[in-house]
Design brief:
- The protein is an all-alpha fold.
- It contains 4 helices and no strands.
- It starts with a helix and ends in a 10-residue tail after the last helix.
């Protein structure tokens, strides 16, 4: 999904001034879908790592805590709720994302 979004973004960039609102919306939807999947996958994976290694996984010697902190940092700095709202409006109503929102 990330590769697909990156390819669409590159094509949009190359269009320059010829980029349409529909083109922008297509890129935004692809990026938002990739963001949602990456967000949920990273949190689930780090949770499962701690389930497997147990409490000892919190010791800094092992370094597992670094992955959890990185996942939390990335997921908290770009709230998922806005992406889900836009994706829902697109899926249910066919409403394309606008550039004015916090997307």
């Amino acid at each position: 999904m990330a590769d697909h979004a990156a390819n669409l973004l590159q094509k949009a960039w190359l269009k320059g001034e010829a980029l349409t609102a529909e083109d922008r919306a297509e890129v935004a939807i692809a990026v938002f879908e990739a963001k949602v999947i990456a967000h949920r996958t990273s949190l689930f994976t780090t949770q499962e790592i701690f389930d497997v290694v147990g409490a000892r996984g919190t010791h800094a010697d092992l370094g597992f805590d670094r992955f959890w902190r990185n996942a939390r940092t990335h997921t908290l700095h770009d709230p998922l709720d806005y992406k889900l709202q836009v994706l829902g409006q697109w899926a249910v109503y066919g409403q394309v994302p606008s550039g004015a929102n916090y997307n």
